[in-house]
Amino acid sequence: MNTLNQFKNFSSNLPQSEMMPVLFMGHGSPMNGIEVNEFSTGWANMAKSIPQPSAVLVVSAHWFTRGTKITAMDFPPTIHDFGGFPQALFDVQYPAPGNPTLAKEAGDLVTSTIVELNHDWGLDHGAWTVIKHMYPNADIPVLQLSIDYTKGAQYHYNLAKEISSLRKKGVLILGSGNMVHNLRMISWEMINGGGYDWALEANDKFKSAIIHKDHQSLINFEQMGGDVRLAIPTPEHYLPLMYTLGLQGDEEEALLFNDKAVGGSLTMTSVRVG
């Protein structure tokens, strides 16, 4: 059986498995995609600590759309959605297969909205820069689910719950963004580590709420204070966290890793649930 046909045969007949963990990855600079550093090493080590997934479904901050879409092509292209970086970064290809059958199955699970099967996107840097360190052989199907920019945090939190059954079929659902993400206030003097007071205070609020399962405060993040408003000037990098939290079971705890501020106004803090 060739590789393409093997992945096409993913279907709802897959045996039920133990519940896959759920992840939120602070992805930071695209350069993390080609650098071996504390963050990329953290992603690689996390992959080694969890079961091998049957597929990865990524909710990336960099696919912000009107309506909800899911990639449904056999081989999603590697998207270099950035500028001003070394040519070596643009040369990277991550040739993981897609899975149209899984895309349709995931879309059919969602009843609150119509999920469009998309053949035009691919794997943006919120997806491949992280996953290439986790699964460097590119032998696991990867799909992306877009973020509907017309909807608020509660909507995305609720939508995540509709796809929770995929976890029992070995699908790793991964949100990719940054809890604190204010590029307009970045400090190049602190690019290797360090955060403004407001960034650290906001991140501490987020971490405390995550550990204590205070999801409602995180959903209503606009009400968490001025430091949080600075941390989230626009919501696209924060909203992937809503998917991770929405998938958290009542008995599941959260583990924090890669917990570091960089550039003054970014945090790489990542979360494992389950």
Task: Compile the SSE list and pairings.
Layout: H1 3-8, E1 22-26, H2 38-49, E2 55-65, E3 68-71, H3 87-90, H4 100-109, E4 115-118, H5 125-134, E5 142-148, H6 153-162, E6 171-177, H7 197-211, H8 215-219, H9 226-231, H10 240-246, E7 254-257, E8 261-262, E9 266-267, E10 270-273
Parallel strand pairs: 1-6, 2-5, 2-6, 3-4
Antiparallel strand pairs: 1-10, 7-10, 8-9
Helix pairs in contact: 2-5, 6-10
Question: Explain this structure to me?
Answer:
With 274 residues, the protein is of the alpha/beta class. It has one domain: LigB-like (Protocatechuate 4,5-dioxygenase, Chain B, 3-Layer(aba) Sandwich), CATH 3.40.830.10. It contains 10 helices and 10 strands. The strands form 3 sheets. It has a 6-stranded mixed beta sheet, with helices on both faces. Strands 3-4 form a two-stranded parallel ribbon. Helix 2 packs across helix 5 and helix 6 crosses helix 10. The chain is globular. The N terminus is likely disordered. This is 4,5-DOPA dioxygenase extradiol. Keywords: Dioxygenase, Metal-binding, Oxidoreductase, Zinc.
CATH-defined fold name: Protocatechuate 4,5-dioxygenase, Chain B
Main structural class: alpha/beta
* Arrangement of strands in the largest sheet: 5-2-6-1-10-7
Q: Find the CATH superfamily.
A: LigB-like
Secondary-structure element string: HEHEEHHEHEHEHHHHEEEE
Total tally of structural domains: 1
**With helices defined by DSSP (H or I, 4 residues minimum), what is the helix count?**
10
What is the CATH architecture descriptor?
Answer: 3-Layer(aba) Sandwich
Instruction: Please write the CATH class name.
Output: Alpha Beta
Count of extended strands: 10
Question: Per DSSP, what share of the residues sits in E-state strands of 2 or more residues?
Answer: 15-25%
Please state the CA-atom Rg, rounded to the nearest Å.
17 Å
Q: What is the terminal separation in angstroms? A: 34 Å
Instruction: Based on Cα principal axes, name the global outline.
Output: globular
Low-confidence stretches: 1-16
